[in-house]
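Run folding on both entries below.
>entry_1
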Amino acid sequence: MHGEKLQYTFKEAIEFNNNGQEYQFMWSDDTHKFQKGAYTVLLYADDAIMGRSSVVFK
């Protein structure tokens, strides 16, 4: 944010139009294998956090 470097495991850009469209992300495929553990999901828009959640992979 604001020129800071962020550490991330996975990044995806979407074109958000605020028209009620739903988005789905597949978090594991042949190129992205997640380890067991807790992950924090941050959604950014215009260099600001617009959403935050956590997930635990067992």
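>entry_2
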Amino acid sequence: MRGELKEPMGPIFTDAERLLDAAGDPLVAVGDVVTYHLERAGVLPDVAVVDGLTKREEVADDVAEGVARLGGETREVRVENPAGTVSRGLVEALRDAISDPEPTLLVVEGEEDLVTLPAIVAAPLGASVVYGQPDEGMVLADVTDESKAEMRDLLSRMEGDSDALFEILDAA
């Protein structure tokens, strides 16, 4: 499945303002660098999911500082999610954050790399999920019936209890 996960789920942008012109509502940002670029463009994502890492290395100080600025403007929730997994706690926190009208910063202890998949399933139609494509830019994934079905298919093929995962996501 690695090959499927490497393919961008939408157009790639290198300019945050152009991305924002095309983005839906609510806006979910996945990743520290993406969140930083949106913050620098003056946008507070409805949900931002960060783990302090980019390409498995600690983010640069300016990125960490940009993300930290959001912490003062959002509700902050800490959640554990081991690398290469989608934990129950992460999915519950993500579902709650998307349904909460208050902006939320989800700080992941572990890794947030796979959170784009359940974020697309949990977000309402018309929303956008933005995530980083390493060394290329930011991917804008529109939440549509088709994208939700594709993410459900990917998640159902991963190890673990996908029925329990979908129960949590569908409870929003």
